[in-house]
Amino acid sequence: MLSVSRLAAAVVFASGSLLATGGSADATTATATITGGTLGFVSAPTSTGFSVTLTGKDVVSTSTHTFDVGDATGSGAGWNITATSTAFTAGSRSLAPTSVTVQAVPTVACDVGASCTTATNGVSYPYVLPAGATAPTATKIFSSAANTGLGNQTVTLVFQLAIPASAFAGSYSSTWTYTLGSGP
Q1: Residue 161 near residue 50 (C-beta atoms within 8 A)
Q2: Residue 17's Cα: distance from chain center in Å?
Q3: Cβ contacts of residue 120 below 8 Å, gap of 6+?
Q4: Do the domain assignments include residue 6?
Q5: Tens digit of pLDDT at every position of the chain (184 positions)
Q6: Angle at the Cα of 51 (from 49 to 53), degrees rounded to 5?
Q7: In this structure, is residue 131 part of a structural domain?
Q8: Which domain holds residue 88?
Q9: Rounded to whole angstroms, how far apart are CA atoms 17 and 20?
Q10: d(Cα 109, Cα 43) in Å, to the nearest integer?
Q11: Has residue 47 been placed in a domain?
């Protein structure tokens, strides 16, 4: 038992000596300067198309549309997408200015290779896309709350086009305008 105690004491003494004779430590500071980038569409929004066959009853056609938003500002200010349109027309015929809606909350996902903070939306649905002979004032179709929406992410909306049974056949067109702005 005595030899085990001496061995333990020798180990404690040796490790204490090693600690006491180690070199002095100096503190240093590391810094990182992170500069904010821009807010913008990663790629321009694409055209939306609907294909409808009249049936003698009211018809609803859907079209999925994506917005690829890049918020590299690092501000946490949030952002919003506003939209407006002209009414769908074919010659002298037109569809109702309330014919395009988004019925459900859009989905949001980080782009591949991006670790984002997905946007928390503040817009209520259903949403009616404003339309008129000339495009009326744009309204928010999606709104990212403050401290969300950072990084590159894709917002996916499903548009619905309501066609009444009394619609005339034809090739209808409409001009849709989207604007991405800072703040919810």
Answers
A1: yes
A2: 60
A3: 144, 145, 148, 149
A4: no
A5: 445 445 444 444 444 444 555 678 889 999 998 988 999 999 888 888 999 999 999 999 999 999 999 999 999 999 999 999 999 999 999 999 999 999 999 999 999 998 999 999 999 999 999 999 999 999 999 999 999 999 999 999 999 999 999 999 999 999 999 999 999 9
A6: 160
A7: yes
A8: 59-165+174-182
A9: 5
A10: 15
A11: no
42, part of any domain: no
DSSP 97: T
- How many domains are there within the chain? 1
Backbone angles phi, psi at 181, to 5 degrees: -130, 165
pTM greater than 0.90: no
Q: Which tokens sit at 25? A: 């430590």
Q: Name the nearest CA neighbour of 67 among 13, 121, 25.
A: 121
Beta strands 131-132 and 59-71 are unpaired
